[in-house]
Design goal:
This is Peptidase inhibitor family I36. Pfam families: Inhibitor_I36 (PF03995). This protein has one helix spanning about 5-25; strands spanning about 40-45, 50-55, 60, 70-75, 85, 95-100, 105, 115-120. It has about 120 residues and is α+β, with helices and mostly antiparallel strands. The chain has a four-stranded antiparallel sheet with strand order 2-1-4-7, with no helix packed on it. It has a four-stranded antiparallel sheet with strand order 3-8-5-6, with no helix packed on it.
Length: about 120
């Protein structure tokens, strides 16, 4: 085999490999799955994306470390229900922009949540 023909085969093999990689399915685990059972989790992005933080149930009014755009409650029933009410204003004042009970989630809050009231 000539050097020229060998170089052509190597180039074709590299091109075929690159094409195969670009067609391979891109698997990404949804961020909502990172929220452990028995938790209330909030995210910086819509649809449970971005940075996630855990919120402590029963801790009253808290200020998340960042404005939240989605929230999930993975507490189940039966048991003591944990609930969260999300506010667009500091200090848990003004209208509630979203609330989650056991097993509920809000993937798209209507505005950034800057405070959350957490109760049992």
């Amino acid at each position: 085999m000539s050097v020229r023909r060998g170089a052509r085969l190597v180039s074709l093999a590299a091109l075929a490999g690159a094409a195969a990689l670009s067609l391979a399915p891109q698997t990404a685990r949804a961020a909502v799955e990172d929220c452990k059972p028995g938790s209330i989790c909030a995210w910086s992005g819509y649809n449970y994306t971005g940075t996630m933080t855990y919120l402590s149930p029963g801790s009253g009014c808290v200020r998340p470390p960042f404005p939240i755009l989605s929230i999930k409650n993975t507490f189940g029933s039966p048991g003591i229900p944990a609930v969260a009410a999300v506010y667009g204003s500091a200090g848990c004042t003004g209208p509630i922009i979203g609330g989650v009970g056991a097993g509920a989630g809000i993937p798209f809050l209507p505005q950034p949540g800057v405070s959350v009231f957490l109760a049992w």
